[in-house]
Amino acid sequence: MPRIKPSILKWARESAGLSLEEAAPKVGINDARGQSGAERLLALETAEGDVSRPVLLKMAKVYRRPLVSFYMSEPPARGDRGEDFRTLPDRHTEGEPLIDALVRDIRSRQAVVRAVLLDEEEATQLPFIGSMSRENGVGPVLASIRQVLNLDLAEFRAQGSAEAGFALLRSRAEAAGIYVLLIGNLGSHHSAIDVDAFRGFALADPIAPFVVINDRDAKTAWSFTLLHEVAHLWIGATGVSGGHFEGSTEQFCNDVASSFLLPSRELAQLAVTRSTSQGDASQLITAFAAERLISRSLVAYRLFRGDRISENMWKGLAATFRTEWLQNRAAQRERARGQDGGPNYYIVRRHRLGAALLNFVARNMSEGVLTPTRASKLLGVKPRSVHPLLSGAALPLGSGPINRIPLASGM
């Protein structure tokens, strides 16, 4: 068995965002022989030595790296998460390793989906991926998205709730060939990623495009984030999105999403101006947003972009809305603790994974293309949970054909 290079141990720990003091007890290296656990771990990271199998297995789990990666000859270059569209306030140092790990995980799932489609000669090119650019303008990009996804604002609002409206938009995106996942952690609440650090990201692949939405965000924001990330796909921009909108690409994708959810003619009806107090503006925006199944923060942002309120007012309203949402979420969780039962694990998991990925896995398992082990990697569960999870996987993907272009033979 080849020895583990010290540089690999250091790279794996640092890329997981852990200090020596934090990592040592987690990987089972405790104080011994007059040395602290941190000192013993440092010794392994600075001079070649024998790392026991149990410690190595714990490192793989704690550092969120496959075991084989510890046998590399040198640390790899930092994983490609695409362009980072977030501005500095969004980049929380403590959350960056979690975001990198999440992007790695989704990229690995996407690679499997892409490979299976190619191997089974089912791969076709989605013509809308990267079909436009910011130079085309917000209107034409939105018009193309509307046409391909068969979007209708009246139908969206007729769903009656923000969650049902999102379900409609998601089904249309999945019917067009986009895999839409709701993920806000790496498998447990201990690895939760704050929405201030990341709200969503898009992988603009023409065969297997993925959109991930942080499900820790308010449900009223999910539709906006989905459309925002879909706009990223349309302009071929892979990357991570945050909550601040200063970047030109972020502003463009925000304008595309918000123009669908809130047309300018309707915003003009909202009686909020620079002379309106923040308290009055908050009340008016709350009622206005509820009628349209959108978030209050979106309305405030559009008012700011239209020079109807000041930047200070916009940021003040956004902070107020977030505080109120966090308080409401905490109250809901407290009430849930006092109630028996709760959503079934598999129902929740299926909702997060989406019909497109579930149906893909179910179909390819039934045809013998995917093993339970490989399927478990795609679904983010243990192999024994695959069959119970797929027992309800025959989910609708919306209506209408998927508009694809066949790949040239030999690809």
Gap from first CA to last CA: 38 Å
Strand content: 5-15%
Number of helices: 18
Identify low-pLDDT runs: 86-92, 398-411
Strand order of the largest sheet: 1-6-4-5-3
Domains, number: 3
* Main beta-sheet strand count, sense and barrel state: 5 strands, mixed
Protein name: Peptidase
InterPro entries: Cro/C1-type_HTH, IrrE_HExxH, Rad_response_metalloprotease
Organism: Edaphosphingomonas fennica
How would you summarize this macromolecular structure in one to three sentences?
By secondary structure, the chain is mainly α. Helix content is 52%, strand content 5%. It has three domains: 6-71, 434 Repressor (Amino-terminal Domain); 83-337, no CATH class; 349-399, no CATH class.
Report on this structure.
The protein is mainly alpha-helical and 411 residues long. It is 52% helix and 5% strand. It is built from 18 helices and 7 strands. The protein has helices at 6-15, 20-26, 37-46, 53-62, 96-119, 138-149, 153-157, 162-175, 219-234, 248-261, 264-267, 278-292, 296-305, 311-337, 345-353, 355-366, 372-379, 386-390; strands spanning 83-84, 124-125, 179-182, 200-203, 210-213, 239-241, 405-406. The strands form 2 sheets. Strands 1-6-4-5-3 form a 5-stranded mixed β-sheet, sandwiched between helices. Strands 2-7 form a two-stranded antiparallel sheet. The longest helix is centred in the last third of the chain and has 27 residues, at 311-337. The model is unreliable at 86-92 and 398-411 (pLDDT under 50). Pfam families: Peptidase_M78.
Keywords:
411 residues, mainly alpha, 434 Repressor (Amino-terminal Domain), 5-stranded mixed sheet, two-stranded antiparallel sheet, 18 helices, 5% strand, disordered C terminus, Rad_response_metalloprotease, Cro/C1-type_HTH, Peptidase, IrrE_HExxH
